Amino acid sequence: MFDAVHFVSQLQAWGRALGFAQIGVAGVDLSSAEPGLLAWLAEGRHGDMHYMASHGLKRARPAELVPGTLSVITARMDYLPAATPADWQAVEWQRLQRPHEAAVSLYARGRDYHKVLRQRLQKLADQMASALGPFGYRVFTDSAPVLEAELASRSGQGWRGKHTLVLNREGGSMFFLGEILVDVALPATPATSGHCGQCQACISACPTGAITAPYQLDARRCISYLTIEHAGPIPEAMRPLLGNRIYGCDDCQLICPWNKFAQRSTLPDFEARPVWQRPTLVQLLAWSEDEFLRHTEGSPIRRIGHERWLRNLAVALGNALRQPSATATERQHWQAALQARAEHPSALVREHVRWALQSADAVPT
């Protein structure tokens, strides 16, 4: 007779061996999350991420997304590199204070997590098949209309923080999430209670006010959305707020007290590539498209393409030019780098370069 409780324990052991920090199981009834999803979409807070709306309520209905689904196996995987120093949060805050240096989100400095998680979730599914025989399943890693954070919190991976990310008492929030939708009925693992209390550090720390209220995020104001998901011009009012962040933003996680418990990854895949140690904006702006593709091979950064890459760098250099502390020599260096892109074939790039060059005139006196 199939012992479902024992099988979940076996799944968790297999998961740990594959490098996952935790394996959980959620049911497929997410109906209580549907009103919030619909309201978020109706208010347009998903911006131009049209894929968020294109699947309708399938996001909250796993059994409609993959017919036959009876349970969802959830997984989380830590991504801080093994060599991450104890004071890593302070190190990252300091990076944001060096306007000439490019700030890239921590998760993006190694191998593309989509590939790492997908391969390991597939291995977990293969082990399930070895034990159960053929069964129906589908693996997801931030790649389809699945309410990942909702499923993770329901299955005990953590609780939803006020920044809307999942928080774990033993792991903070520096981890990736993935799922396997299966046609096997498994007992759900228990959810955990929330532990944010009265803390509002993430709300106060958000540079653009994207966390509009506890547990409410307006993606249109989020730097991660603006630098990665958004394809068009970055709204002018937002540009000065981006600082030197050229790919993503970690501020709400850097400030979170729970991330003092963030765990280091056991996998070499997430080790930061040397090029991301302390790159300068000028250095990165000079990359040709071929150089961009070469340096970002196997990296999540490649997904934005060279055009958006140059757009983001132009904004960051424009913000550097706005710094009263910049020397005349630095200004000349930055302006020369921008001038080299002033006649770029892309209107998007040219417009942001033009704005950046005008930023020199916006320096407070």
Percent of residues in helices comes to 25-40%
SSE string: HEHHHEHEHEHEEEHEEHEHHHHHH
CA-atom Rg in angstroms: 22 Å
Low-confidence stretches: none
Number of helices: 15
DSSP summary, beta strand count: 10
The side-by-side strand order for the widest beta sheet comes to: 1-2-7-4
Largest sheet: 4 strands, antiparallel
User: What is the average per-residue confidence, as pLDDT, rounded to a whole number?
Assistant: 93
Work out the strand percent. 5-15%
Helix and strand content put the structural class at alpha+beta
Q: What would the principal axes of the Cα set say about the shape?
A: elongated
N-C termini distance? 78 Å
Detailed description of the structure:
By secondary structure, the protein is α+β, with helices and mostly antiparallel strands. It has a domain at 4-99 and 109-182. Helix content is 37%, strand content 11%. It is built from 15 helices and ten strands. The chain has helices at 4-17, 34-42, 51-54, 62-65, 88-95, 113-132, 148-154, 201-205, 223-229, 251-254, 281-285, 289-295, 305-321, 328-339, 347-358; strands at 22-26, 71-78, 103-104, 137-140, 159-160, 166-167, 175-182, 211-213, 216-217, 245-247. Strands 1-2-7-4 form a four-stranded antiparallel β-sheet, sandwiched between helices. Strand 8 and strand 9 (216-217) form a beta hairpin. The termini are far apart.
Brief overview:
The chain has 15 helices and 10 strands.
